[in-house]
Amino acid sequence: MISRRMFCGCALAACGLSASAANAQIACEYLTPQGQAGVSPTQAIQRLKDGNDRMLAGKSINCDANGMFRKAGAGQAPIAAIISCIDSRAAPEIVFDQHLGDIFVARVAGNIANVDIIGSLEYATKVAGAKAIVVLGHSKCGAIKSAVDGVKMGNITALLKQFEPALATLKPADGKRDSHNDVMVQKVALANAMLTAQNLTKRSAIIKKLVEDKQLSIVAAMEDVSTGKVTWL
């Protein structure tokens, strides 16, 4: 886990923190390019895992948001890029307990990767130096439910076509396609997250080269919106 200096805005004693309590906290320290460079792809993923553990344990980082914004004006150096759904319960900064400047976030219904998202990921990784990409699906996904039901409505129709590869993983044994079938919806959501992650290197030569050079890790994960717990796939 990447260590950080303790941030409290005052001396530890003045903050009323014992040494043990202070050591149990993680400081809010805005990431610099030098700090980003010192994080490996494996460490970037571990940091997100640690953050989800903190969130579940009720020990989220308490940050100085105003101070972070002042530092952010000079530039950014996030360690990871997350493709997440627009679902209001799937906010990566909260799920992974990361603060301003830690992660790039691309949010789109059903956490798909279209050309615009992939271009954004190329920028986040090749240009801005992020060390990991996480495709974060979630339970009870409305976009997945709509795809299962074959909804056709305005531009949503074109969006839902993106889920056809995941829908193709369904078997007759899975039963009739119905969004009320929670097991089926979860199966499609899992397949969608995994296929999206797997196809990034096939759809981007830039991302493929970074992975081959061990400068980038790509993983898929699923959030349980009832608990916030992330399962890594």
Fold and architecture overview:
The chain is built from twelve helices and five strands. The two termini are 20 Å apart. Helix 11 crosses helix 12. The N terminus is likely disordered. 44% of the residues lie in helices and 12% in strands. It has one domain: 3-Layer(aba) Sandwich (Beta-carbonic Anhydrase, Chain A). By secondary structure, the protein is an alpha/beta fold.
Terminal Cα separation, in Å?
A: 20 Å
The named CATH superfamily? Carbonic anhydrase
Characterize the overall form.
globular
* Widest β-sheet, arrangement of strands: 2-1-3-4-5
Can you identify the CATH class?
Alpha Beta
Binned, the helix content reads 40-55%
Question: Main traits of this protein?
Answer:
single chain, 233 residues, alpha/beta, Beta-carbonic Anhydrase, Chain A, 44% helix, disordered N terminus
Question: What's the SSE blueprint?
Answer:
Blueprint: H1 12-15, H2 19-23, H3 33-37, H4 41-56, H5 65-72, E1 80-84, H6 92-95, E2 103-107, H7 115-127, E3 132-138, H8 142-149, H9 156-160, H10 164-167, H11 182-203, H12 205-212, E4 217-223, E5 230-232
Helix pairs in contact: 11-12
